[in-house]
From TrEMBL:
Organism: Allorhizobium borbori
Protein name listed in UniProt: 3-oxoacyl-[acyl-carrier protein] reductase
Record-stated family: Belongs to the short-chain dehydrogenases/reductases (SDR) family.
Enzyme Commission code: 1.1.1.100
GO molecular function terms noted in the UniProt entry: 3-oxoacyl-[acyl-carrier-protein] reductase (NADPH) activity
GO process annotations (BP): fatty acid elongation
Amino acid sequence: MTGASRGIGKGIAKRFGEAGLNVLVVSRNQADADAVAAEIGPHASGFAADVSTPAGTDAMVKAAVERFGGVDILCANAGIFPAAKLGEMTAADFDHVLSTNLKSTFLSVSSVLPEMTKKGSGRIIITSSITGPITGYPGWSHYGASKAGQLGFMRTAAIELAPKSITVNAVMPGNIMTEGLEGNGPEYIAAMEASVPLRRLGTPEDIANAALFFASEEAAYITGQSIVVDGGQILPESLGALEAM
């Protein structure tokens, strides 16, 4: 479980732990990973790795094999979303977001493949977003590109890995109440709540439940698909549609 020390990743890790699964909590920071693992309980273990590097994802898989005997499920959740508008965004800014969000997905999948192939099955769940594939937001063109890229990667990966009985699917969150979102301030949060037909922001648990479904036997015949979890945010054609409610 990459990017598992906070926000959506932490929510998924805890939900998987509640379901009785062994969870390797992966974060750049060992102390943060250990803290989440301690919350989950004895079936979880913390591990520090930079998953934007091949060495980091290979080490992550090695740790999972040593501690839990193998890899059945990969949740590729690592992601960042620093704001920078075009004209201000640098090439380094763009590369950093694409490396953390998109390249890490490719590397994580590549690293787990030998273990899943050996087992003859596997589940890969990618955390994408509505931003990029469906919607846009000023300052997040690099983020949107990375999240749309994840879905493009997912579709071909699903075809290639299907003969190995490995499924690849994605969850596309809307606005979820996490530490990162809270940093945008109360006015931003109020505006986002007003744009959602259910009139609230989602929780990490809302995303975790969708991820757990993709990881389950009930989803064994589903691959290359994405599910939007956004409280209906992408449905209104305009603010007038919400006002008409």
